[in-house]
Amino acid sequence: MKYIQVEIKLDQVHIEPVTGLLLTMGIDETAVEDPSDLKGILSKEHGYEWDYIDDGVLTSSGAAPKITFYLDEGEDERADSLARKIEAEFPETEITISTQDDSQWKDKWKEFFKPAHITEDLVVKPTWEEYRPKGREKVIEIDPGMAFGTGTHETTSLCLKLMEKYLRPKDHVLDVGCGSGILSVGAALLGAEKVLAIDIDPEAVKVSAENVKLNRCTDIVEVRQGNLIDGVDFKADITVANLMADLVMLLTGHMHKAMNQGGIYISSGILTEKEDEVTQVIKSCGFDIIETRKDGMWCAIAARARF
């Protein structure tokens, strides 16, 4: 089977903004090669002493930073569209699109997806890994395929941590932009009585439904295709929206009609540079900010609905 490789060469200062732009376009699994990291490791200031360094390593230390991601075979138009958008925002980037054969490397990425502790009691694990829960641990089993993230991205883990803190037994939960369904499954395992998962992408709906079934919570989680909360007749105690800043701000203006009194609205996928802007919109739409958490360049916001 073949797949599409997209390689972006860019300046070091553009790594984070380009990675953020890719996330807003649905690409949350990227490989970043930054030679400045190697220079730091080789520097004696970091306390490392090396007896031997391969010439190839030294040569690569002078190369340009690079971001690489992959698409399924047949997604040529999407690859071209993504490249055009990146070049429009960052014209100095150099983008190469190529077709690769995965006959040797098929499922190689799975080697790097291991069981991960998101919180003390929440563990995310892929279907192909064995894991025996300890004590009160709850295990979310995910088969993301290559089209969706593994669930360990900062934006997802921030949501899970906030949801674990604020979700109460028997709560009704609305998951807007459910992707792989990991947040919906997490809500069910944390004690939610009813969960409605929504995504505009039919592939996301399919994958979410499969993961809900895999985790034996079809009696709790309903997966539905839709555009944000258009036409949704559902009252939530907890709403999670792991989207991007612009979509979060667009969604926030409509959230009250889907919230129970005192309900908690958790939004993520927000770059820290957008935090103030998103916070102001959330406040202006009838919510009180109760907590903001950050991880690297990302933040998630928990707010309580005012009635």
What does this molecule look like?
- The chain is an alpha/beta fold and 307 residues long.
- The protein has two domains: 2-106, Alpha-Beta Plaits (2-Layer Sandwich); 154-305, Vaccinia Virus protein VP39 (Rossmann fold), CATH 3.40.50.150.
- The protein has helices at residues 15-24, 35-42, 55-60, 76-89, 154-166, 182-189, 202-214, 245-252, 275-284, and strands spanning 2-9, 31-33, 66-72, 94-101, 116-117, 122-126, 138-142, 172-176, 194-199, 221-225, 236-242, 259-271, 287-295, 298-305.
- The strands form three sheets. Strands 10-9-8-11-12-14-13 form a seven-stranded mixed sheet, with helices on both faces.
- A hairpin with a 2-residue loop joins strand 13 (287-295) and strand 14 (298-305).
- It is globular, with a radius of gyration of 21 Å.
- The N and C termini lie far apart (54 Å).
- The relative contact order is 0.11.
- The model is unreliable at 44-55 (pLDDT under 50).
Q: Say what the CATH topology of the largest domain is.
A: Rossmann fold
Strand composition percent: 25-35%
Helix content: 25-40%
Q: Could you give the count of β-strands?
A: 14
Output the structural class.
alpha/beta
Straight-line distance between termini: 54 Å
Structurally, the number of domains stands at 2
Please state how the strands of the largest beta sheet are arranged side by side.
Answer: 10-9-8-11-12-14-13
Helix-strand topology string: EHEHHEHEEEEHEHEHEEHEHEE
